[in-house]
Design a protein that fits this description.
CATH class of the largest domain: Mainly Alpha
CATH topology of the largest domain: Butyryl-CoA Dehydrogenase, subunit A, domain 3
Helix content: 40-55%
CATH superfamily of the largest domain: Butyryl-CoA Dehydrogenase, subunit A, domain 3
Shape: globular
Number of strands: 10
Largest sheet: 4 strands, mixed
Strand order of the largest sheet: 1-4-5-8
Oligomer: single chain
Distance between the termini: 58 Å
Length: 394
């Protein structure tokens, strides 16, 4: 399922090669039936999440202590390999892994021992589905503009406000919620909380129907009282926590995009051999050969950026904003182009909804927006390039 040649790259250790082969075999055997691209009510994604937990795969990229003790090492290369394999297999399977993984990162990295015992162990077993609640109607790319309020009240906090584009809305067992605990403009005005998904004050207002199979919606938090120890990290650390989680998540988005692209390339290769035009397979036409070569080149370059970013985190430590942004930006844009060319190679059949390339065309588009738009990635890259460079005196 996964191309064996990249596994020989120096970015990987033997443990990653074993993981890729074992997981690829498991996905082919266990998830082959999940071909639908419809997120629907989220039941398919949750079933996949539970299967991944029972198979032990949800723990593959997290520290081995299963929530006990401070996280020492998160294996980003493993997470990227998992998402590439799932992306190749099925978009809904990728959703079943990726949305909960993003939500568990803040708890695994910044949670107290009690919080990790309460939530991380249930996550890796596939029993407790977490969700990430950051965006609001007026706060998407500008996360610092969120308006949800968490008001301190004795030994509790009371949360009020609206969250949208929240994964697994109405389904999650817990939400990592980002809310304002200080006035707008304060240096540290946003905090993060772990909130039980069954709280009576949380109401699903709308489930959003999107091109991709993501199960997202809008949630209303009204008078949601949580204990003080629901606070994740320190007061005012919320925005830093959110950005740290997204920084780690972005290379995995690129990896899933590479998986989508590889699936499209394989489909295009097969179609180019079997489809005859002008008395010969279209694979023998030079224009088609040029398309196939360009597609392969883009995917190789994308994969190199993805696994360079993951390697940089695993080997050199946190602080990969530039590498992560480059990986997500290039891989998602490249996958979009590769899949578009696959549709072109399929001809009229490529725009039939039920074909693989048509499904991939719908799926990949969201990747250039979710988890930081392509434009935001460019701003991050430029900011990192300019860091430490003083403006010339006038």
């Amino acid at each position: 399922m996964i191309d064996e040649r990249p596994l020989r790259w120096p970015f990987f250790e033997e443990s990653h090669r074993r993981l890729a082969r074992r997981f690829g075999d498991w996905v082919a055997a266990e998830l082959g039936s999940f071909e639908s691209d419809e997120g629907g009510d989220g039941r398919a994604a949750r079933e996949i999440f539970q299967r991944l937990g029972r198979g032990g795969w949800l723990a593959s990229s997290l520290p081995p202590e299963r929530g006990e003790g401070r996280s020492q090492r998160l294996d980003l290369r493993a997470a990227c390999l998992v998402r590439e394999i799932l992306g190749y297999s099925s978009a809904i399977a990728d959703v079943g892994f990726s949305e909960p993984w993003l939500a568990i990162l803040p708890i695994a990295l910044f949670g107290s021992e009690r919080q990790r015992r309460a939530w991380v162990t249930g996550y890796v077993d596939g029993q407790r589905l977490p969700a990430f609640a950051l965006s609001e109607p007026g706060a998407g790319s500008d996360a610092a503009a969120i308006e949800m309020v968490a008001r301190a009240d004795g030994g509790s906090y009371v949360l009020d406000g609206l969250k949208t584009w929240t994964s697994n809305s109405g389904l999650a067992d817990s939400y990592v919620v980002f809310a304002r605990t200080a006035a707008v403009g304060a240096a540290k005005s946003i905090s993060a909380f772990v909130v039980d998904g069954g709280h009576a004050g949380i109401r699903l207002e709308e489930r959003l129907s999107v091109l991709s199979p993501h199960t997202v919606g809008t949630l209303r938090f009204h008078d949601v009282r949580v204990p003080a120890d629901a606070l994740l990290g320190e007061p005012g650390q919320g925005l830093s926590i959110a950005l740290a989680a997204l920084e780690l998540f972005r290379p995995t988005v690129g990896a899933a995009a590479v998986g989508f692209g590889r699936r499209a390339l394989d489909a295009a290769l097969a179609r180019s051999v079997e489809r005859v035009a002008f008395r010969k397979p279209i694979a023998e036409h030079q224009l088609i050969q040029a398309k196939l070569a360009d597609m392969a080149l883009e995917l190789e370059a994308a994969a190199l950026l993805v696994y360079r970013a993951a390697w940089a985190h695993d080997v050199t430590g946190p602080g990969i904003a530039r590498e992560a942004a480059m990986a997500k930006l290039y891989a998602t844009e490249a996958a979009q182009e590769v899949i578009d060319q696959a549709v072109q190679i399929f001809g009229g059949l490529g725009v039939v909804n039920e074909t693989t390339v048509a499904r991939l065309y719908r799926h990949v588009r969201a990747f250039r927006i979710f988890d930081g738009t392509s434009e935001i990635q460019k701003l991050i890259i430029a900011k990192e390039l300019l860091r430490g460079r003083a403006a010339p005196e006038r």
